Amino acid sequence: MIKLFLLLFFLLPSSVSAQELLVRAFASYKIMAAAADCESGNITWEGKKIEGKLTVAVSAKGISASFNGENHSAQSLTIHAGGNGVYIYGHGTPKRLYRGPITFSTDSKGFLKIINRVQTETYLPSVLTGEIGDLKQMEAYKAQAITARTYTLTLKNNHIKEGYNLCDSPHCQVYYGAENIKPKAAEAVEATRGQVLTYKGKPAATFYHSSCGGYTEDMSYVWKGNQKKPYLISVRDGDNPRKPYCAIAPKFKWKVKLYFTGLTRIARQNEWINKNEEAVGLRVSESGEPGGRVHELELYTRERRIKISATDFYHGIGRKERWNAVKSCNFKIIQGKGYVILDGKGSGHGVGMCQWGAEGMARHGFNYKQILYHYYPGTVIKYD
Ligand SMILES: [Zn+2]
Ligand SMILES: [Zn+2]
Fold this sequence. Notes:
The chain has helices at residues 2-11, 120-131, 138-155, 183-191, 219-222, 260-269, 310-321, 355-363, 368-375; strands at 20-25, 33-37, 42-45, 48-49, 53-59, 62-67, 70-74, 77-90, 96-106, 112-119, 166-167, 195-199, 202-203, 208-209, 253-259, 281-287, 294-300, 305-309, 331-335, 339-345, 353-354, 380-383. The chain is an alpha+beta fold. The chain folds into four domains: 17-118, no CATH class; 122-191; 195-249 and 349-383, no CATH class; 253-345, no CATH class. It is globular, with a radius of gyration of 24 Å. It starts with a helix and ends with a strand. Bound molecules: zinc ion (2 copies). Residues 158-159, 166-167, 171-172 line the site of one zinc ion.
């Protein structure tokens, strides 16, 4: 036990208990300097109150900071944001509010590194606020609180080599500080405090998506090469095939007309076809049973057929065209002259929990445990 403690102690730059996280703020911005507005809160450095503004910049020694009319040069600088917290911003970044210890230093590439030390149970309401969108039901919030807590646990070693646990970007999990937290998100985190979803004693991979359209999808069809997980299988979303739990989702059904001229452009951009080839047809060549989600498509040119995995197609259209019209791989193709119509249901990759289905189940009176066990069959909720 002592050995384990020592090991953990040396792995992390400073000791972090199981319930604490070191989160890098503004991780997706490359900034060399930042400022902190210290007027409103109780912001201290080595026990002394900081009045007014603090500025900090990357320097040869590490960082140079200026506050209370003094300049400080050091490898790193830690301030403590009590009270309402402190607003921090860099050039071209939004202003964000942070509470607790905040450490400024330089990363290996020479950019400013800002680390906020935060309790997991304080971090989660902020994450959850970003994830729940328009959901309304408390039981759905609680289910999502547990998926977020579980996911956080599985991410904790993501940036250990860089001296922190998680970054605040979608690379790990979106965390934009202590502001604009939905009270219901905080309530759901509190109500499920410490609960995580496990499979055979280990934290489960708690993927989720907006709405499945009737059936969730087996993970192994979505991310090829991933090992099959017994709890990430296709699940029917309710007893009524005409009205699955997620049928309440906004824009549950969608249609998109795809002209072959547009399809040609997308296909060339994605290098599915060569620059001199033209797309003249598209059909579904493989779909899942019984859900009917598309697994593979066939794209036709005048000379040949090209097989495209549904995931590549879905991302290829979304990413290259910045076009969210194709919302999921749950669609049928209607053939037209010079075009096809994708007639679809649901939104997202379809793996794991269906968020709008969770909302629908909660409206039907199911609790968060029933919701989680429905979407992740065979898992067990345990205390972390
Ligand atoms: Zn990350
Ligand atoms: Zn669903």
